[in-house]
Amino acid sequence: MERDEILAMPAGRDVDCLVAERVMGWTNIRLGPSVNGAPCPVGEGPDGEHGTVPAYSTDIAAAFGVLVKSQEETGCRSYLERNKAFVWEVDLGTATAAVSEFEPQINFDSKRAAALAICRAALLVANETLEPKRETS
């Protein structure tokens, strides 16, 4: 997955599943029963327990788990900051992502913007380790 694709991904279950698999160590992720009319992804968590994939990209509490895991993986300190332009920026040492509270899907929700910024940065870090570097000529 390309950097621009990751940075353009909207909050939602697609991001949640990618974060669960690539960052948090979930396996066997698939669509489970519908919740509120939408299929809900389920799988096996890193502890081997079967359950629902957390809403990492919209739930700040779940996203903080992603931030901690990414810090452990990179060995870098990270920061999460909201600037005066209502943009949340996350720096995980090897990757940075920013999300504006003005993005249509965010709807001026600062917690949601911060959660998505964390997920995008974590996916960028995971992408660096999962995908081989392309040689340029």
List the helices and strands and how they pair.
Blueprint: H1 3-8, H2 13-22, E1 27-35, E2 38-44, E3 50-52, H3 60-74, E4 79-82, E5 87-91, E6 96-100, H4 110-130
Antiparallel strand pairs: 1-2, 2-3, 4-5, 5-6
Helix pairs in contact: 2-4, 3-4
Question: Any descriptors?
Answer:
137 residues; alpha+beta; 3-stranded antiparallel beta sheet; 24% strand; globular; disordered C terminus
Can you tell me about this structure?
- This protein has 137 residues and is an alpha+beta fold.
- It has 4 helices and 6 strands; from the N terminus they run ααβββαβββα.
- Strands 1-2-3 form a 3-stranded antiparallel sheet. A 3-stranded antiparallel sheet has the order 4-5-6.
- Strand 4 and strand 5 form a beta hairpin.
- The longest helix is centred in the C-terminal third of the chain and has 21 residues, at 110-130.
- It is globular, with a radius of gyration of 15 Å.
- Residues 132-137 have low confidence and may be disordered.
